[in-house]
Amino acid sequence: MKHARKLRLTSLCLCLCLLLAGAAPVYGLSEDDALTLTFDHIAAHVQPPQAVNGFTDAQVIQYFVEVAMYSEYEGYRGYLMRYEQPRKYCFLGSPDEEDKAQVRALVAELNQIVGCPDLTETANVNEADIKIMFSDQASYENYFSLRVPAGSWGYASVWYYDQGYYLGELTATNIWISNDAWPRRDRNSVIAEEFIQGLGLLNDPEYGYYSIFDQNRNDCDWPSELDWAVVNLLYHPWMDRTASESQVRETAQMILDSWK
Predict the structure, then answer these.
(1) Cα distance between residue 107 and residue 223, in whole Å
(2) pTM (2 decimals)?
(3) Helix, strand or coil for residue 246?
């Protein structure tokens, strides 16, 4: 519907400008020159379509590259990571019903994304590829034999292939949500960030965008339009997991153009 309104607005502008150009005499200009000036005037006042509201394509692509091709603690990786096969997830520790509801709502949305493998819940920890633990930090560290940076409210670690044909394919994810993550808005933000980062988007840029990935905020308690665009780009069937950065940028532009 938004695109339809833009087309009608553009058509109206064209009609008005052509009528005005026809009504007012243009002295000393050829017919071609007059038309050129008329359409230059229209182009100066019609904004280009945006695939993501409030962001240029260049901004979306740059954000995608920084979130998807870098890791917060490892730096630039230079290729994408994502799941390629359906996966199961389970809850560990002591999640409350709102914690579970937030995860399940995220899964429902993710399962609608073309190219994203289906995610299903299981109560059997041995069947789960994605484990989400709600606990104190020590319990998480001891269970998964990991060390989490001090002061963290959440953490995601992934297993993936780093060479060969399967380069970048994820095989497992471990997620931690701290008992200290509170109030509820902040807790939901941490859940959204860590769960989606565990699907292959492991960096936290500092652009100040309203985004679950932003390093300095916990007030985005549900992925923003920009965040969903990043997820859709990563799992889009046109996106090659092993592509170079320049190829990733080109493909991302093609995908954004297809959304307009």
Answers:
(1) 12
(2) 0.82
(3) helix
